[in-house]
User: Which sequence fits this backbone?
């Protein structure tokens, strides 16, 4: 062994150990049918593997599966950016994304993906919720935005508080586009204040001294000032808080509140207080959202096709190994080892980043495996050519690499350009394809030049 | 072996494949799936085998709700119905009504896609491909800038894109025919397959072009058709080995993979075969045709200028 190939070999060995650990760290379950040779009937195989506990505890390295593989609900929301200055739109979208993420997490859904997307001049939020295939439930979880308004009134009430008059004033509210019940709460001629949900910084559930749940409102600096003005103008009177078109709270103002904090009491259960806090936080959304698209994807269909395709993928890989070995003999075995390291590296990256795997994404990965195989074939064919010209083995290896490199580089750069464009202009599935392809190509260049070359120099030169 | 000499035959063969597809595209278009047209798709799963009575039950249920069925497909235990977009409420009413006759029916899938998204995916994908093609022409022109005069490096880029168009047309054309005669649908996975084919096509063409570039640099006296012929022969084994590997893997996926990826794999199989063919028999040959055309118009030959 030549001295200069020891360091790269050591590096490849460390890399190999690392990627095997990463790929083995997550738990795995495999269920498939094998044909029993003696009875010729399908024999179910269950393989359960619990992963490396130490790493599993540290971080979940399972593959993140897209909805087409796992099943669930997918919702596309469009943000209405009218009236929001152009330079604030990106941050408005990002904070809307944040709020939605919090909401879904709060409801205990595992690993939702909430992505923002800008298509032409449309600002969108894509929400994938695995596990929940009831779209109605999913939309209500995500899309319901509560608009909070504060109302003040004259404080004059009709003399009689009969049920008939209450209904009449409610009808009046409805006709005037006011929250129903606001007249009854604050008196005749209610007016909307300039304080609104967008002035709210946060709503949280707290408990008063008797353990009764209440919702604590924290206003922004601007909101705090508005709130101070409203409360000082209405001491002794009632200020109504309305959510959407419904009055939810009508507290009497005891004294001006200047600290920017307010508490909504009321006979809440903890659950109701939680829901209200979530709704208010959503009400603090800087943009209103409309549902553009909703789709439910059945898990059963996804699962069977996933398992069949996974096994087919493993078989496909075996086919590559056999074919390369038949074509190139010992070189083929070296290439196969490099390819295994290559695929494991890409899969490790998918786990680490993490990349959400969809069928389209897997297609991108398959293409990149093809490109990696092609790189090996290109190099071997050049080596053989140089050998036929009568060069020494070691010379041929070096020349094989340096001659094959321009075509590997140019073809891969053009594929990288394609993936970049697809990522930039594409919608979700096309993006998934672009990401896995680009990652795969980058790793394949490294694999062909570094891993294959190191193996050849160490294991091939000797023979 | 003289490959370049028979180039008109290769062009003729390509046209033989492409023209019926293009005619079919003009006459019948593509059999677009719900991904493109927008609409709703519902899959009802039965505990036992589907019979005529169940199908007519489904049909009358939709008719009662005044929802027009666009297509109805049945497998052994499933009925899949496609309609124009309907709401969740309409869907649950329909499921309830179907369950009156067959209580054990389950709904596996209910999917609604607005047509806006459908046309948008297409438009954006086409946009992306157009821009990617332009950038690839630019990149190849730049990467091949060292090529010997009077060959212009632009020609390599343009010929690579023509080969890309060829492969895309072959796949789209054949799927138009498959759609018309066998009801094969074009869905979002098909778009992915097409992207894969386009990626492979350019990749494969550049490998062959790279050899032409290298030989042009080394061999300063040979006639251009001869250089192209040599380059093709030198890369032939690699081209065949690579695409054979890819085709073998795709066949494995076709046989063992899930049903839902079947036509996706078929599209890739056709595309990879076409991509390999077009790199050798179209893109490289077009370079020769282009050179001869330039020579003729300037009345001088590339070899003895």
Assistant:
């Amino acid at each position: 062994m030549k001295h200069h190939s020891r360091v790269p070999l050591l590096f490849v060995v460390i890399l190999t150990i690392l990627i095997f650990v990463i790929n083995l760290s997550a738990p795995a379950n495999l269920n498939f049918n094998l044909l029993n040779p003696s009875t010729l009937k399908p024999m179910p195989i269950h393989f359960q593997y619990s992963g490396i506990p130490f790493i599993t505890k540290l971080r979940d390295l399972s593959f993140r599966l897209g909805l087409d593989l796992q099943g669930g609900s997918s919702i596309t929301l469009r943000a209405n950016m009218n009236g929001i200055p152009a330079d604030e739109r990106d941050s408005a979208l990002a904070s809307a994304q944040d709020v939605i993420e919090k909401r879904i997490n709060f409801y205990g859904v595992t690993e939702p993906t909430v992505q923002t997307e800008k298509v032409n001049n449309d600002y969108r939020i894509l929400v994938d919720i695995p596990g929940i295939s009831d779209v109605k439930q999913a939309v209500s979880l995500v899309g319901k935005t509560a608009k909070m308004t504060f109302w003040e009134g004259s404080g004059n009430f009709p003399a009689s508080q009969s049920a008939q008059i209450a209904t009449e004033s409610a009808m009046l509210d409805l006709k005037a586009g006011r929250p129903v019940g606001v007249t009854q709460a604050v008196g005749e001629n209610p007016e909307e204040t300039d304080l609104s949900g967008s002035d709210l910084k946060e709503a949280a559930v707290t408990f008063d001294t008797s353990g009764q749940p209440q919702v604590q409102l924290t206003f922004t600096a601007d909101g705090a000032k508005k709130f101070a003005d409203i409360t000082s103008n209405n001491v002794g009177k009632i200020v109504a808080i309305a959510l959407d078109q419904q009055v939810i709270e009508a507290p009497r103002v005891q004294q001006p509140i200047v600290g920017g904090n307010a508490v909504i009491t009321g006979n809440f259960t903890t659950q109701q207080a939680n829901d209200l806090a979530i709704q208010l936080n959503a009400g603090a959304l800087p943009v209103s959202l409309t549902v553009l698209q909703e789709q439910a994807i059945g898990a059963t269909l996804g699962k069977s096709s996933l398992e069949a395709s996974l096994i087919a993928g493993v078989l496909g890989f075996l086919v590559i190994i056999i074919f390369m070995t038949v074509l190139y003999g010992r070189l083929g075995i070296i290439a196969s080892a490099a390819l295994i390291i290559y695929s494991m590296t890409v899969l490790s990256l998918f786990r680490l980043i993490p990349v959400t795997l969809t069928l389209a994404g897997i297609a991108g990965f398959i293409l990149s495996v093809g490109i990696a195989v092609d790189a090996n074939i290109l190099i071997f064919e050049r080596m053989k050519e140089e050998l036929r010209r009568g060069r020494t083995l070691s010379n041929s290896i070096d020349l094989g690499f340096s001659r094959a490199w321009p075509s590997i580089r140019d073809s891969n750069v053009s594929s990288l350009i394609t993936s970049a464009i697809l990522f930039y202009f594409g919608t979700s599935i096309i993006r998934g394809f672009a990401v896995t392809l680009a990652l795969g190509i980058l790793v394949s260049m490294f694999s062909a030049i570094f891993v294959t070359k190191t193996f050849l120099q160490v294991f091939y030169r000797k023979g | 072996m003289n490959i370049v000499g028979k180039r008109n035959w290769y062009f003729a063969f390509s046209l033989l494949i492409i023209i019926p597809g293009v005619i079919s595209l003009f006459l019948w278009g593509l059999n677009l799936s719900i991904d493109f047209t927008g609409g709703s798709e519902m899959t009802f799963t039965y505990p036992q085998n589907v019979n005529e009575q169940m199908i007519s039950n489904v049909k009358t249920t939709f008719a009662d709700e005044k929802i027009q069925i666009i297509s109805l497909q049945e497998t052994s235990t499933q009925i899949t119905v496609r309609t124009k977009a309907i709401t969740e409420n309409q869907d649950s009413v329909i499921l309830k009504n179907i369950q009156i006759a067959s209580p054990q029916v389950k709904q596996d899938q209910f999917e609604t896609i607005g047509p806006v998204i459908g046309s948008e995916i297409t438009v954006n994908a086409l946009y992306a491909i157009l821009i990617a093609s332009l950038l690839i022409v630019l990149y190849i022109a730049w990467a091949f800038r060292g090529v010997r005069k009077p060959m212009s490096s632009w020609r390599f880029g343009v010929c690579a894109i023509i080969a890309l168009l060829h492969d895309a047309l072959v796949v789209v054309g054949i799927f138009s025919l498959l759609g018309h005669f066998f009801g094969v649908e074009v869905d979002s996975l098909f778009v992915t397959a097409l992207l894969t084919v386009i990626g492979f096509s350019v990749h494969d063409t550049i490998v062959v072009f790279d050899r032409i570039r290298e030989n042009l640099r080394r061999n300063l006296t040979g006639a251009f058709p001869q250089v192209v012929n040599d380059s093709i022969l030198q890369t032939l084994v690699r081209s065949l080995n690579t695409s054979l590997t890819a085709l073998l893997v795709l066949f494995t996926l076709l046989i063992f993979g899930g049903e839902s990826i079947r036509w996706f794999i078929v599209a890739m199989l056709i595309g990879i075969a076409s991509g390999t063919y077009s790199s050798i028999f179209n893109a490289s040959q077009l370079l020769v045709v282009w050179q001869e055309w330039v020579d003729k118009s300037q009345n001088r030959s590339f070899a003895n200028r």
